[in-house]
Amino acid sequence: MANEKAIKTNLNILLKDYFFKKIFEKLCLNNELHSNEKEYILSVAILFFRFYDNDKRNKIYFKIGYYIILKYTLKYKDYRPLYDISLQIGFYPIIEFITITNKLLNVDDESKNLITDAIAFISYREKFKKGDYFESLEQNSSRISIINSNENEIAYIAPTSYGKSSLIADFIDKNSPNKVGIIVPTKSLLVQTYNDIKNSNKEYKLVLHDEMYNEDDEKFIGILTQERATRILNSKSNSFFDVIFIDEAHNLFKRDSRSFILSRLIQLNYKRNPNQKVIYLSPLVEDESNLKIKKTKDGTIYTRRVQHDFKSFELYYFDENKSFFYDRFTGEKYNLNDDKNYFQYIIDNSFNKNFIYQLKPKLTENLALELSSNINIDLSNNEKIKKIISTIKKEVHPEFQIIKCLEKGVVYIHGKIPNLIKEYIEKQFKEIDEIKFIVANTVILEGINLPIETIFITTNKAGKQNERLDIKNLINLIGRANRLNYVFDKNSKDIDKLISKIHFLEHDTYHGKKGDKNQFSIFQSLKKLNENKLIDLVKNPTIETYDIEKLEFYGDTKEKKIENKEKHRKEDNKLLDHSDFVLKLPKSENERMKKYFIENSIEKYFDNLEEVIDTILINIQNYNFDFNHKIVDIMYKILIVNNVQNLKDFELDRLKNEKARDYYNYYIEVTQKQHLSQRINSLLIHFSNKIKDKDPFLYIGTAYGDATSIEAGKPSRYEELNNNYKDWKKVYVNLETTEQSLVNLAIVKLKIEEDFVSYQLTLLMAFLYDFNIISKDYYYKYIYGTTDERLINLVRFGLSVSVINKLEIDNQIDNLGLDRNGNLKAKDKIKFENYLNLQSELFQFEIRKYLN
Fold first, then answer.
1. Which of 82, 216, 456, 681 could disulfide-link to 73, CB 3.0 to 4.6 Å?
2. Considering its fold, how many domains does the chain have in total?
3. Contact 317, 523 (CB under 8 A)
4. How many Cα neighbours within 13 Å face the side chain of 608?
5. Same-domain check for residues 413 and 384
6. Number of H helices, E strands in the chain
7. Per-residue pLDDT tens digits for 704-728
8. What is the DSSP string of 511-524?
9. Which residue did the predictor score with more confidence, 421 or 191?
10. Which domain holds residue 489?
């Protein structure tokens, strides 16, 4: 055995030691160890822990020591080593699971440490029990420290599922702030966070939409996106939050409009309330100083971290029908001698619940369909699956291609599926044991709590312009597997889920051909996970530590890289000028409109903002409002007429065409009130009419497009000015295809229209209302489909216009409302429950998401 002094001097010697490598390889591959090898590997684990204790910066040595203990425990069902280390570092959920929940180790039988164990065992149970789960020592001390802190800026950095919701609830309980903002990055997280807060029985009004806020609300909790929170601050000059929780705070590092809105929200709230408390929550921040926003209070950010994760993970690599175990600690690759195809590998290495990551929506669907065709089971007669399929056939469409997948226990989701369908599918995957596979893209990365046991990563792409999954993206992705509430579920009989198995797979179609100059091998991404140091890449110039010199600039030549850097620098100056500008009170109508455009990211749709605003002000003067005018026509007359040369958003550019304006007017007035299946059928009729009119090309966006604008005969102004046709994006699709393909396109197009109306047209409607171009009743008619305040409150709360429309038709609207704390309530619960039970599955699902 290598001597201890040498290991302490340079632990890399041990990692290269032949004897250690052979035994560690056997442990990794679940091969049998001899008794002396068991003793050796456990002793080495202890040495790793000692080395970490001597220098806490060397977290990698804790991780490898803990992995050895976990792996040994799961292999030999000898829980004593894991119990001992858990007792020392305060992994109390593991102790509870081993000794009480499953009695995997009887402390009374261990006479050697009987007294010490008994005392520790009794003390932790009372102190660390939190509701129906136990906290770790780090988790408990961090939570208590944060809720008792008097600091103005606080960061809680902890792995996924380490008590974020509990921390928020306890902080509010302890400190009783009046005006609370919980800022979440996506609308899908609004409901999840709302239910977490609602269930903690707070005596606060809950606000999920900026228009639910009233200036006289003295005590409220706003569960909001950054856009909605910003609109609350801008609704009245004296509005502010006492406390702001920033969920997924690492998003502040990004360089996009939503990150800028988030940092400006913090700046503006600080200007209104210099004593604001900001609490940053993230699993992915290495240096808390990188969260510091310019033009806010000086000083450091008080930070508590959960350094140690209960979970570990193993990496596997598949390429050309061969598979390997990749040792992320030593960098060794062990041949597993398998010879099977891509889909058979996924099937053979699957568990009860499996997540397959793919980025592009079209490839996500194709992957799910191809996987399904390789699974030799038929669930079409399974009662639970039959019910789901029946629901989809009746309420979506009989030709929806996910039905084929469901028959094999596979589902898929991505950002181009309407929210109601996506959330319904997630629920089925979560609750139905027979559904084993979910194929999804980045929609699964932020906060969705699903019972995933293993992950298959089929591409290393993470976003537009071929961005790659960096190490933080990968860690966040891996964190989706085996969330702690599933690991320590009362029905679990072992702790095997503490080691997640993560598979990286090469494939010419689903990842890309190796050797392509634009291709980055998926194996190169896998190897990043043996890096010991995480780095915060700050791309947001409104953050104090932002440094353009630390960014990488791409280009074919050195000159091109320099050109891109200078372009970046100009953008930085513009962004900082805008950040300064929006913090000041406007002195004219021109400045008020400019401020509004910047705060709401409308300015990104135009070039030459000053010129655009001058033109809009003239258009407003020349326009006479008439209640009979159509809303999209008003947008066109105010925002686009005489501004076409400065309009750079392709989707808004389409509104130059009268047919497009007619289409969206009808969508807002009629289509969005329809049942989901009606909306799909309406689109199918629209497709049919386009084909009959010899106009078969449909704008669909880059996710599904297979034809450029010039191929479709519909180039935009920007494309007409660009002679380099090869750079044009494929954003159109030819509708002359099969019925099933058309149905799938209709579902995708429906989501695209939902997003276009929700994120762009609704924003522009709000602008028309806020600048008194349209009346209040007119605005309500188009935004909510009604001028009835009772119905409007339900839509603001989150119910769709189509659901409200049905409730009104069924004379149930008087039985549903919001209580004094803003929660959805049925006045006569029994009567409403009886009504609900008679309704369609998706209708029930949408109501029950919110109803107590």
1. 82
2. 5
3. yes
4. 11
5. yes
6. 37, 22
7. 888 887 777 777 665 555 555 555 6
8. T--TT-TT---HHH
9. 421
10. 312-530
